[in-house]
Amino acid sequence: xxxxxxxxxxxxxxxxxxxxxxxxxxxxxxxxxxxxxxxxxxxxxxxxxxxxxxxxxxxxxxxxxxxxxxxxxxxxxxxxxxxxxxxxxxxxxxxxxxxxxxxxxxxxxxxxxxxxxxxxxxxxxxxxxxxxxxxxxxxxxxxxxxxxxxxxxxxxxxxxxxxxxxxxxxxxxxxxxxxxxxxxxxxxxxxxxxxxxxxxxxxxxxxxxxxxxxxxxxxxxxxxxxxxxxxxxxxxxxxxxxxxxxxxxxxxxxxxxxxxxxxxxxxxxxxxxxxxxxxxxxxxxxxxxxxxxxx
Length: 295
Ligand code: PLP
Hints:
alpha+beta, 28% helix, binds pyridoxal-5'-phosphate, globular, 2 domains, eight-stranded mixed β-sheet, D-amino Acid Aminotransferase, Chain A, domain 1
């Protein structure tokens, strides 16, 4: 059966002390229109979002996603979300999720409706796309120039690099360009040759015994999946590091993955048409961990 769920939220101020926010929620039919045509999220992509993986009814890493939602809100001058209200909205969505299988709960906080009211917020729930092939066979990626040097995030904070905004048209265009070049996905690099992130995922490399991911100061989205996996790897005694990674290091990586909340860990099988070994056993271990209940 297809899971589709939608809940409109009347956003409460961050310091609203209520413990029960049920009165601020309205469950609506996910198959019928529910947004105003004046929505600035649809007109301008002016808003922020989160995608939370749901496994067998359990929403994964809720606290980390809410922390990042608040981070994005600060970067975008949106009202800071009330954490308890959003936690309850996520719980309401997850309560309706199938007890078996993978889903996704999306949180959206929009600038609102032109001429008010503002902001608007809602949560949706749906079945996840099937990523089993990508997790098992791997994905071919190409590097794409993001067209900005590594000083741009600090020099031009209004570009909102590092916020999870609704403006993903560029990210989707990069994936289409990757497909035109015969690959499955892309890794953005800065114009001065630093590895950044994929359009919808974080990059993790294995360099010898070390697991390395791009430093978060380079204007990338801090990934909740990468963070969770690094904590797990560290707890197993592995060395993990955040580094400035030159694009040349990709060719020397012993293994590479794209990781994100719904796809989980997809091993990279080729970078710019050069094959790279897929470690099936390690990837399966990553995904067993990522599919286990995580808070
Ligand atoms: N980087 C970008 C640009 C993304 O869009 C995403 C997820 O959609 C990620 C990284 C990975 O983040 P997470 O692991 O929290 O899903």
